[in-house]
Amino acid sequence: MQEKSNSEVLERFQSGETFSNEDLSNIDLSNQSLVGVDFSGANLSGATLINTDLTDGNLNDVNLEGADLSDAVLLRTYLVGANLTETTLENANLFGAFLSGSLLSGTNFRGADLRRATLGCPKCIPSTPFGKLTTFENANLEEAIFGEIKLEGIVLLGANFKGAYLYEVDLSEAIYRESDLEGAITKQGRN
Fold first, then answer.
1. pTM, full prediction
2. What are phi and psi of 48, to 5 degrees?
3. Dmax over Cα atoms in the chain, in whole Å?
4. 98-100 and 134-135 as β-strands: parallel, antiparallel, unpaired?
5. Residue 149 pLDDT more than 90?
């Protein structure tokens, strides 16, 4: 399949087109404003989206394996069922984002803003627990919702969980200090 160019994608986006189920692997869309973009079901593996504004975007079922979204803005973005394996979201703004059902294996959320985000995946088990750790180090998870998930091989050191709701969350294999979970609301989980 022929790779799409950065300028072609931007031109089509300006025309109001969607990119649902398209192959956009390895594309570089850094420093672009793609507010409201529809990448649902698209292949963005290996893409570079550094400092890209994806506010209110539809990234449901997108493949972002190995993509770099450092400093990206994903306010209220839908990433339901997304593959975020080895994806970098360091210092990204995911305020109010929906990540339910997303595969988080080796995902880097270091320093990310996940306030009021929704995360959880009862049937998602990372394929290589403790291989490449998913990290939420120093992330802001204030008022985030974690539902029915086993945080296996997850680093939570320095994360802010004030007012976060942890419903049926198994922390038995997560790396954290008790003080990291200060202010979290837990229900029937193990920590």
1. 0.90
2. -110, 115
3. 50
4. unpaired
5. no
